[in-house]
Amino acid sequence: MIKAIFSKLCPNCGGDISVERLEKGLPCEKCMPKEGDPCKSLKEGTLWEVCQVEKELLEWVEEFRRGVSAEPWDLQRTWAKRVLMGHSFGLLAPTGVGKTSFGLSMVSFLAKKNKRSYVILPTKLLVEQTVRKLKSFGLDEKQILYFGDDTEKEKREKRKRLEEEDFLVLVSTSMFLYKNYESLPKDFAFIFVDDVDSFLKTAKNIDKAL
């Protein structure tokens, strides 16, 4: 029997791999000398990265359950996986499918991993409502910085926090982004734009978000 070797088809390192390994769904012998569970054995490579995403996805599902008191839909799981893989994308789904619940659960999940997020909304009223929802996920005042109907004293205090980057979640209107772009941090792990139809009315907002 002739042993077939496929060039540059190892799903983990992109190197050569035998047909036997491919049939078993395993990476090449160089990546994983002993057969077993790739997620437990691999230390680096493409498959290892996939395993890490799957692990984080399970953690996000638990966060979603705690905050929403429901099981995430398959579509929401797909969105979460894309975020965890570092992809930018638009959520095209009807009202009521759970776009906002998905976004806020991801914001909460990342905050608890000490990663910064930015939630952009069309109105100050929605800013206030969103902050209340984020608190229901377990986030507190020290983690959230939001700009709504504030007094002059509150504005000064919040501006100081913004300058010092003393927050994990920033919540504001799209107009705030437009007017304060230069003052905002640029190292957000996740930017969630809710009600994107309103956001798209100002083309420069898109450039600033990207």
Globally, the shape reads: elongated
Q: Assess the beta-strand content as a share of residues.
A: 5-15%
Give the C-level CATH assignment of the largest domain. Alpha Beta
The number of helical elements comes to 10
Can you tell me the CATH topology of the largest domain? Rossmann fold
Instruction: Give the end-to-end Cα distance, rounded to a whole number of Å.
Output: 55 Å
Question: Could you give a short description of this structure?
Answer:
The protein is α/β, with parallel strands linked by helices and 210 residues long.
Tell me what the structure shows.
By secondary structure, the protein is of the alpha/beta class. It folds into 2 domains: 5-40, no CATH class; 46-209, 3-Layer(aba) Sandwich (Rossmann fold). The chain contains 10 helices and 6 strands, in the order ββαααααβαβαβαβαα. The chain has helices at 19-23, 38-41, 46-68, 74-84, 99-111, 124-136, 152-164, 174-180, 196-199, 203-209; strands at residues 5-6, 17-18, 117-121, 144-146, 169-173, 190-193. It has a 4-stranded parallel sheet, with helices on both faces. It has a two-stranded antiparallel ribbon with strand order 1-2. Helix 7 (152-164) links the parallel strand 4 and strand 5. The mean pLDDT is 91.
Write the layout of secondary structure elements.
Elements (H helix, E strand, L loop, with lengths): L4 E2 L10 E2 H5 L14 H4 L4 H23 L5 H11 L14 H13 L5 E5 L2 H13 L7 E3 L5 H13 L4 E5 H7 L9 E4 L2 H4 L3 H7 L1
Helix pairs in contact: 3-4, 3-5, 8-10
